[in-house]
Amino acid sequence: MEDRPLIIQTDRTLLLEVDSPSFAECRSSISPFSELERSPEHIHTYSVSSISIWNAVGAGIDADQIIKTLQRWTKFSIPSSVIDYIRSTASRFGKIEMTEGPDQSIRLSVKDSLVFHELVANKRISAMIRFIDSDTQSFLIDALQRGNIKVALIKLGYPVNDLVPFRIQEHFPVKLKPSLKLRDYQILAADAITGNGKPGTGYGTLVLPCGAGKTVVGLAIMASICTPTLIICPNIIAARQWIAEILDKTEIPASDIGEYSGEHKDIRSITVCTYQVLIHSSNALEMNNLELMNGRNWGLLIFDEVHLLPAPMFRFTASLQSAHRVGMTATLIREDGLESDVFSLIGPKRYDVPWSVLEQQGWIAEAICTEIRVPIPQELAIPYAVGTRFEKNRIASTNPAKLPVVMQLIAEHQGEFILVIGHYLDQLRKIGEKVNAPIITGSMPNKEREKHFSDFRSGKINILIVSRVANYAIDLPDASVAIQVSGVFGSRQEEAQRLGRILRPKERKSSFYTIVSKFTVEEEFAANRQKFLVEQGYSYRTEER
Hints:
Layout: E1 6-8, E2 13-17, H1 23-30, E3 35-38, E4 43-47, H2 50-58, H3 63-73, H4 80-92, E5 96-100, E6 105-110, H5 113-121, H6 123-126, E7 129-133, E8 138-142, H7 146-155, E9 161-162, H8 184-194, E10 203-207, H9 214-225, E11 229-233, H10 236-249, E12 257-260, E13 270-274, H11 275-279, H12 289-294, E14 300-304, H13 311-319, E15 324-329, H14 339-345, E16 349-352, H15 355-360, E17 367-374, H16 378-386, H17 389-397, H18 402-412, E18 417-421, H19 425-435, E19 439-440, H20 446-458, E20 463-466, E21 479-484, H21 492-500, E22 510-517, H22 521-535, E23 540-544
Parallel strand pairs: 5-9, 10-15, 10-16, 11-13, 11-14, 12-13, 14-15, 17-22, 17-23, 18-20, 18-21, 19-20, 21-22
Antiparallel strand pairs: 1-2, 2-4, 3-4, 5-6, 6-8, 7-8
């Protein structure tokens, strides 16, 4: 009997049985037009959305092929509402095509008369129109509006088929060192971005777990496209890690690599900078950093931790639609729900892989997640009861009963490399004094931060106390224990990043602890964080101390 491991529900969710012999083949078949939502132990849940369908159609997979694939794998009949949704949504792609126009303009051709009149009547769209040609049902916009209008149109439910070819870029040779061996999924991720070089390829978003080697994927893309590249990172530590990786894994000479930061303003063929330096200008008479960087003939933009893309950067991104673009992140989750803006400006999600799959293959460490609940001291009970929601969260987060638990956990993991992570600096300072460990905060000079990280990597110290500044893009490969004492409410994205600090492959299992005050708002926030971890396939247990 033919194996059919898929169940299709009326809400367009796809339930895939992990234990099925055909699991891998089925997952590969449905991934082009669905998005992974949850991946616990036995059932992975995918969703079919407008974005995932449009991405598939843009890649040459039409509605009939999607439906045929679902029919091949489903145990039961496909609900008629799902079929109707797929056909209707797929039909919207291609109704608007974007091509080059005259005099630095972009032409949008609308194939449906009703859609054409709807767009012309829309105030937000009409404000960007330079010229309307009713005879050909098209209109012209300034080239700089290319990104803005794509965002506006997708919010109206009309994805643009962007066929404007990338401009002829300056060639810059990028060769990977022969010693660098790419993993299978890294090759697939890089190929998903570069595509076949035709219009509609060369841009998009990659979702890979922390520790999966996103930087290596970025280097592979650079080697494929061979063009001047701007890499934008969340902080200076991450930027310098990129530079170190480029020097270590490619044949690009140091003289061709520039750091554009608060300390250095070197623009080279390969330039690495931070989000903040691009949107900050200390002198009104200076050229705006965004304009300065925009003036370079970049052929490739790499946005590291793209889910952090700050609002002012959207203008920069929207104005650089003529360059190859790739966004890289461990999770596209944003608590403000603006993931669609990242898809619109950087490009749709081209590739992702479940955390649990890479764990099973040994590419990232196996992690045990534990929530430890502690009581609120009697003297804080009344202040907590009468406090505002913000005050309740602070009292629960900085609960002094957490300190003895931190000490117990450090003793239990003696000899391992331990990160204590928190949000409130006073709390972290008390812990740092108690365990005699350095505290990494946002106000600490970069040179001092780098020294502590270096000491941790070399084994001179094995405990670091870190604030939110260490959530992102910090490579501490030997860290195997993370103790989370406080966080930003119930941020799932923060949970993913903090877990990622201990997922580099190692001989022993990693341990991720979250210490929570019992019967407080922290339990509610922890439940949201726990849900994310369970959805990613991690076992999660609770205990009281």
